[in-house]
């Protein structure tokens, strides 16, 4: 699959979210929305009401990444609201198969996220239940952290496990001009970038450059 870029609005200006989404709309494929509850991760961001507001203004589909303790309860509501993709964390979900199915039946793509120290192999048997596997390349919770190279072997193993299943492989955390080529070479095809996009002078141009590098 051609690489896709999903800029994370965690690094955008929260006082002008709609504008910051609009400036990358022609360049990006998705808008990555980090939902954090201060329990699963030590940070608190936004929830369903803000996602609903973004859905009313965004020209791009929303890629909602739920870093929350009770995804089984909340994830289907993000899908029902109209998110294009909803990712739950393996470490948090108590009934992942049921929740992934609920996301799909509400019409969204179902994603499964795994943290840097969580192995991918235990999830091989449920790859048929998901549309995207998200591999965290930093510990979740904050933008602007340093890319964890130690996750790259897992990206390779995940790509091999996916085989010819129609499952996208997303990397999230520390993805930048310096690291995106390594991620692409290891087999990732959806790239989340927060600080590398919104920290740039021209965010849309930063997205185009990242795409060019991922295509190499
Ligand atoms: C971190 C979030 C990421 C974050 C990435 O927990 O899941 O999506 O916004 O930010 P950067 O690209 O700056 O590492
Ligand atoms: Zn994220």
TrEMBL record:
EC number: 5.1.3.1
Keyword flag Isomerase: yes
UniProt xrefs under Pfam families: Ribul_P_3_epim
Residues holding a divalent metal cation: 32, 34, 65, 172
UniProt-recorded Gene Ontology molecular function terms: D-ribulose-phosphate 3-epimerase activity
Cofactor binding notes: Binds 1 divalent metal cation per subunit.
PROSITE patterns per UniProt: RIBUL_P_3_EPIMER_1, RIBUL_P_3_EPIMER_2
Binding site for substrate: 8, 65, 141-144, 172-174, 194-195
KW Nucleotidyltransferase (keyword) present: no
Co-factor requirement: Co(2+); Zn(2+); Fe(2+); a divalent metal cation
Source species, domain of life: Bacteria
Family matches, as NCBIfam families: PRK05581.1-4, rpe
Protein name as it appears in the record: Ribulose-phosphate 3-epimerase
